[in-house]
Structure formats: structure tokens, C-alpha cells
Amino acid sequence: VQLQASGGGSVQTEDSLRLSCGASGLILNNVAVGWFRQAPGKEREGVSCIGSNGFTSYRDSVKGRFVVSRDVAKDTVYLQMNSLKPEDPAVYFCAAAGPGVSGFSRAMYDYWGQGTKVTVSS
User: Fold this and answer.
1) pLDDT tens sequence across 55-107
2) How far apart are CA 74 and CA 76, in angstroms?
3) Are the C-beta atoms of 5 and 18 separated by less than 8 Å?
4) If DSSP states are collapsed to H, E and C, what string results for the chain?
5) Are 34 and 48 in contact (CB under 8 A)?
6) How many angstroms separate the Cα of 83 from the Cα of each of 11, 19, 47?
7) Which of the two ends of the chain, N or C, has the fewest CB atoms closer than 10 A to its terminal CB?
């Protein structure tokens, strides 16, 4: 199983980016997918997740700005990040868990992809 996050880049404050998560060896439509991020010197933290049933959750600091969604036809999960702020820069990872998982406990996620870097400048 391999997951791959893509779509990172360098943007300015209040800009938007859309991250994508794809997989091989795993059907993302059948599992929960979480987005995590890790800034230099900081712990990896959960950002958002979407269950196989479409249920979504977000950390408080991104509510109203980030939207997680699925494209079932493409078996891809997206993280739309709007109004990016100086506290958002990090390497963003996607991870897969069992279908009923909801939340940001890293221990619940079985598969992790390599991250994609997001840089926000003012």
C-alpha cells in the first residue's frame, strides 16, 4: 500500500491550495482518510479527516477554512485549504485508517504517505 499526498507549494497569506491524496494497493473510498501536518520542531498534528461514510472532522484552527472531500470516481481525497495563515505552513501528510475511524489519533492510522510541503509567506 502506498499513499501519496501532492499539491503543496508556496503561497501567500490568504491564498488557497488544494492537496490531493491518492493510493495504490488500497481503495480510498473504503477507508477513512486523515490529513496531518508537521511543522519543523513540532509534533505531527491532525488537521482533518473524512470517514468512508463521508463524515468529516477538523481541528479547531482550520474550521471554516479547510474542506476535506472525496472524488469517488477518482478514488482521491482532497484537502481544500483557503485563507492560509502564517500558522499553516508544514509538511502535510495523508493517512488511511479503517472505515469507521474518526479522529486524529495517529495510532489509528495504518498507512501513511510521504508528505507535501506547504509554505505560506506574508
Assistant:
1) 999 999 999 999 999 999 999 999 999 999 999 999 999 999 998 888 889 99
2) 5
3) no
4) CEEEEECCEEEECCCCEEEEEEEECCCHHHCEEEEEEECCCCCCEEEEEECCCCCEEECHHHCCCEEEEEECCCCEEEEEECCCCCCCCEEEEEEEECCCCCCCCHHHEEEECECEEEEEEC
5) yes
6) 10, 14, 15
7) C
